[in-house]
Structures are given as C-alpha cells and as structure tokens.
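Saturday, quiet lab. Running sequence design on the structure tokens for the scaffold JK sent over.
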C-alpha cells in the first residue's frame, strides 16, 4: 500500500498507527476508486487559497478549537489563555497548530532530501535492498487534500465512538486532536491511494473508530501496567 501512496519503493512506513493505515487502505479499495483522487478535486478560483495546506489546516483547526472553547466555557478557557479572549485564544491555538504542521512539512522535505541518499550505504553494504521506514508525517506531501479529509473523518469517527461508549456505559475515550490529526490524516492518504476521495473519508473514519474502541478494549491491560 505504501508503494501505491509514493509511486515507488524508496521509503516505508515506520509508525505505531500502521495497523490503522493498513485497515484504511484495505477497506478503501472496496468503497471507492483510486482514480477519483482527492488531489483531483476541482476548487473554484475564488477558493483557490484552500489548496495551501497551511491555510486549510489552520482554518480546520480554528473551527475545532472554537467549538471546544465554546463547549468548555469562558471561565475554564481563562485558566489557559492568560487573560486573552476565549475565542481569540482558540483562533491563535488553531493557527499555532497549523504553523507546527508547516514546520513538520519543512522537516519532511529535509528528511527526504538527506536521509534517503545517506541510507544508500546501509542498503548496499550492510542490509541489501533495505529501505528506510519513516514517520507518518513524511507522507503528508503526497496527498495534502487527503490529509485534511482524513483528519476530519477520523475526528468524526472518534466523536461517534465516544458517544457509543457513553451509550453502552463504557469508559469514555475522548478524541484528541493530535492523534486524530496525524493518524487520521495518514489513514486518509492510504485510503485515497486505493479508494480515492471516498476511500480517504471511509478510511479516516474507521481509523477514528479504532483510536476510540481499541484503547477502551485494552484498558484492563493498561491498568495492570499502571498506564490506565
């Protein structure tokens, strides 16, 4: 599946969310078509700025942070914002997240530019035909639109999973923006590689459910290890 994402075999995925990415790609091929890629979505010229990943990520995260700030209430947010307006604090937090992702993108380009050539010595002398396994963020540049779609779908899956756990009286696993962003985005990229835009949405959603139900099922083990 990684070779479908990258159109080559220079890198592999080396990340703890790999099971979710495999599940996403496997299911996506049954629900969509790879040729209907998220990267081929036509955006009207007046909305062309949304093609910039930093802008689209910033706007998406601002929305989520504002919703969270309204839900938490101004009294609680004031304990975090150092006197800043709750809504302004939410907007700044969303923008800071987008800036952080932009820094990650820059690091990704450096990794791809420097790590792969440096790895050739290992691949030729120590472990024949070896390729480096890299972090999930390295794959963001291959399908930037799928990144946003996968994240949103994963977060929605996390919310629905939390509501289901609450309805059945289970332990609530509250969806966190960081794991749903990075793992959900990568699941969307893998889903897009095999099932296009529909695959990206479904793959991200399934990843969100997995990020909710698997920790809930593993909670007794976490408790025995002292990590509950």
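Result came back. Writing it out in full:
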């Amino acid at each position: 599946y990684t070779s479908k994402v990258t159109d080559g075999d220079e890198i592999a995925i080396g990340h703890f969310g790999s099971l979710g990415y495999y599940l996403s790609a496997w299911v996506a091929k049954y629900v969509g078509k790879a040729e209907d890629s998220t990267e081929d979505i036509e955006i009207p010229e007046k909305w062309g700025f949304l093609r910039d990943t930093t802008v689209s990520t910033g706007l998406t995260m601002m929305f989520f942070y504002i919703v969270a700030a309204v839900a938490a209430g101004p009294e609680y947010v004031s304990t975090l914002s150092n006197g800043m307006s709750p809504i302004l604090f939410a907007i700044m937090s969303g923008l800071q997240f987008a800036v952080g992702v932009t820094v990650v993108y820059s690091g990704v380009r450096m990794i791809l530019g420097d790590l792969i050539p440096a790895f050739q010595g290992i691949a030729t002398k120590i472990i024949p035909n070896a390729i480096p396994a890299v972090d999930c963020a390295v794959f963001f540049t291959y399908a930037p639109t799928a990144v946003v779609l996968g994240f949103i779908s994963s977060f929605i899956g996390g919310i629905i999973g939390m509501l289901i756990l609450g309805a059945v009286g289970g332990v609530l696993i509250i969806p966190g923006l960081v794991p749903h962003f990075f793992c959900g985005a990568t699941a969307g990229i893998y889903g897009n590689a095999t099932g296009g835009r529909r695959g990206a949405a479904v793959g991200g959603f399934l990843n969100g459910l997995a990020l909710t139900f698997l920790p809930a099922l593993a909670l007794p083990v976490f408790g025995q290890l002292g990590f509950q």
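Notes for JK: The mean pLDDT is 88. The helical segments are 2-6, 18-31, 53-72, 74-81, 86-126, 144-167, 177-225. Ask whether to fix the surface positions before the next round.
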